[in-house]
Structures are given as C-alpha cells and as structure tokens.
Amino acid sequence: MDTYAILKAKLGKETDRRVILGACLPGAAYEALAQEPEIAALLPCNVVVRKMEGGESSEVMAVSPAAMFSLTSMNDPAMYKPVEEKLLAVLDDVVAAAAE
Fold it and tell me: Is the overall model pTM greater than 0.90, yes or no?
C-alpha cells in the first residue's frame, strides 16, 4: 500500500513516502487463526519501507510477531517464533543488500 498516494488522493495532503508491505506466511497464519480467530485483527505482519528526509536512504520497519502475539491470550512461542525468525532473516538480508 502506497500511503503517500492514498493520502494525497483522498485528503490532498502530502506525507513521507512510505510503502506498507503485507508479509504473511500462510501456513503460520492458518495455524494461528485455527487456535485463536481474534488474531485476524493482527494479521498480516507488515513491513514498512519509508524514504528518509533528503531521499538518499530508506528506513525499513516491522513489528515483532512476539509483540503482536503478546496482545492475545495465545502467547505460545511455537506459534510466533518461526515467523519472527523468518522476518528477522529478511530484515538482515535487506541490511546486507543496502551495505553492498
């Protein structure tokens, strides 16, 4: 989702350039939903890419799946740990690619 384009079109307002990417592991989402349907309000895991002031660099942000699951009654590490590990691996890859 391109928040800049949406807010510009709907409100005529400009914000930082930012894209929100839905990053969901379908198998993990299915298991979580099967155990706690209310977790749907916290899916998918979003990764945000924001262009920094001056436009020479970007910031990549994500919320820890462990933090998201802590908002539910189903705080089972077996449910969020694999998702968190994959998300951290992706973020590490982004950092490594940016350093090249």
Answer: no
